[in-house]
Amino acid sequence: MHLGVGQKSGMSSRGMRAGTNFLIILLFVSFVFSGASVCEAAKNGAERQPSVLQQKAGQEKTAASADETISVVTAKLITWDTVPNEPGHVEFDTSYAYTASGNAWSSDGNRHSRELLRAHEFDEMAYVGVVKDLDIFVGSGYAILANKENNFNEVGEFIDPVLGETIGNPSEGAAHGHGIKDLLAGARWRFYDDEAQQLSFAYIPIVQIPVGRRTDYNHLGPSQGYTSMDNRLALTKNIGFWNIDVNLAYLTPLAHLRKTNNYCGTLETNFALGYQWTRWIQPEIEVIYDHLFEKNGKGGKLCSMVFGLIMPVHAHIRLDVGMIQDVLGSNVDQITSGYFRIVMTK
What is the pLDDT of residues 261-305, one digit of tens each? Predict the structure, then answer.
């Protein structure tokens, strides 16, 4: 996920100054504690009703002491929720992420400085509700990259006839580049939905197709250079004005190990918690753990924190803003990202 420029979806997108980190944490804490009185007033008389944004508001609660209806939004910055778009409904997501790194962790967990790693990423995603409990999506984007530690291996797919090992090339490669990103295509099938318990499960397969610009000796590109498959299980649970999303996924490269540099896949777990503070704002926090596997090597481990605000400002418009910060790892770069997304439904 966070090994460098051009890896991972979502998703996934990162980079802000340290001061922003403190501000968002402070906002999240103040929102949760100041909203406690609202939750207390609602818990004895809350009633479930249809959502304003049906595909992203898993439930609605009416406070016993007020006439205002508040939709609990299930969407998060990074972690997937289980709520698909309704049949015939369309959703368009436009996002920008700034990612930067000046540190990395060695395989023993010690942190050290590294040369600049930076990316500006612009992404588009479209979702279409097909039938009840199923939607499909497709998306891509454009990235502007910088990596002063890039080492492009021009002979990486050749085998040493004596040692029988992949030949390495110590020469450096391009430090800058830009181009179209790989294509993402997938579906979200909610196979279990218990309205009484406000609990649902979904299966989300995602294919990454390498149509983007690849890295060569003279130019950095955002494409990973091979096809991969993300198999993901998601859980969504609402408790009053609280919302929980949990993911368990395995990302599998569908290519020969020579193309993936011995990378075999990533096991990912996500936990996200949000509180619907008002009708139009939900502070949320996420914890993401990635374990990267290699055939010959120690692989990598990474734990990241996400702090965000989910803001359904209109019946058909939602704004998401936040940051992603790597906090612990081994054999990976430490990356900080700032993230902004506009979600429009029709």
Answer: 899 999 999 999 999 999 999 999 999 999 999 988 789 999 999
What residues are paired with 238 via a beta bridge? 243
Q: Which domain holds residue 274?
A: 18-151+170-345
pLDDT tens per residue, range 240-262:
999 999 999 999 999 999 889 89
Asked whether residue 159 is assigned to any structural domain, the reply reads no
The residue written with tokens 């753990």 in the block is: 289
The pTM (predicted TM-score) of the whole model is: 0.77
Q: What is the CATH number of the domain that holds 77?
A: 2.40.160.40
